Amino acid sequence: MGTERVRIAAPAKLNLHLGIHPGRDERGYHRADSVMVAVSLADELLVWEESGREPGLRMSEDVGVDPRKNTVWVAAQRLCEEYGHEPCFQVEVTKRIPAQSGLGGSSSDAAAMLLALCELWGEDPADEHVVTVARGVGADVPFFLNLAPSFLGGAGDVLRESFPPLDGVPVALVRPRGGVSTAEAYRAFDLAPSEPPSPEGMCRALRAGDVRTVVDALHNNLADAAARVEGGVALVEGWLREQEGVLAAQVTGSGSCVFAICEDEVAASRVAGRASSELGLWSRATRTVSRRGGLLA
């Protein structure tokens, strides 16, 4: 094998609409309506292969997961099996997306690994074999194969519709001190489930590319469950809504991170800076993106 190395960004995501339906299917999953967009905050993967060498995974920080259960490792092993390739991948992951935040870091890392291997092997990442592996690794992984703003149904893993690019919308991210695991959030939801509204309002806003309508259509019926698991969620959400230049604020995914759509980049930077300096919380100013180009410095 050659010495080619692939360096690839793994961006975070926001749920503009997340509607979790009560009850679980035969797989144990909830039906979910998920409308997502990617942002410029991104992990980074460096991937290559060394024939005859055992697979290797190196993380820039301990994420509390056994390497062989890490989504990057699982995705790579399954894709090797799917295509009959020797599992001799080597990968270095530089983490910038915090865990247990609803930002999709582990899913994005897995998708980036699949894309990197496809590039090394000359395979089409849109091939159904790749998509099937992605769905098997995690519900959000298929979204990160493309990055276009998208509506996913099923368990949040079946693409229903892709929308025109929605680039450059300024966003401030603020994470409470405590994280929320997906399992914890869903357990809390099951104790007090609620029926979600239709995602059609958000879909119409994205078809039109109308940011103000997107702001008005924001919804996440998993937010209350996240707030019951981590009390700081509601405090951060309330604080963000009071800040100058914030158009709307909402929990992303199962939390604990809260995002604020802002009037402009100056407002997003100011809000993120205040969250760090005044509240002592992790925060970042970022922007929406629809492709990977330009995400790597």
Summarize the structure.
It is built from nine helices and eleven strands.
**Share of helical residues:** 25-40%
Helical segment tally?
9
Question: How much of the residues is beta strand, in percent?
Answer: 25-35%
CATH architecture label of the largest domain = 2-Layer Sandwich
Description:
It is a single chain. With 297 residues, the protein is an alpha+beta fold. It has 2 domains: 6-162, Ribosomal Protein S5, domain 2, CATH 3.30.230.10; 170-289, 2-Layer Sandwich (Alpha-Beta Plaits), CATH 3.30.70.890. The protein is 33% helix and 27% strand. Strands 1, 2, 3, 4, 5, 6, 7, 8, 9, 10 and 11 form an 11-stranded mixed sheet that branches. A hairpin with a 6-residue loop joins strand 9 (246-251) and strand 10 (258-262). Helix 1 (71-83) runs antiparallel to helix 3 (128-137). The mean pLDDT is 95.
Secondary structure elements and their pairing?
Elements: E1 6-20, E2 32-49, E3 56-59, H1 71-83, E4 89-94, H2 105-121, H3 128-137, E5 150-153, E6 158-162, E7 170-175, H4 182-191, H5 200-208, H6 211-217, E8 219-220, H7 223-229, H8 232-241, E9 246-251, E10 258-262, H9 265-279, E11 282-289
Parallel strand pairs: 1-8, 3-4
Antiparallel strand pairs: 1-2, 2-4, 2-5, 2-11, 5-6, 7-10, 7-11, 9-10
Helix pairs in contact: 1-2, 1-3, 4-7, 5-6
Structure keywords:
Alpha-Beta Plaits, Ribosomal Protein S5, domain 2, eleven-stranded mixed β-sheet, alpha+beta, 297 residues, 33% helix
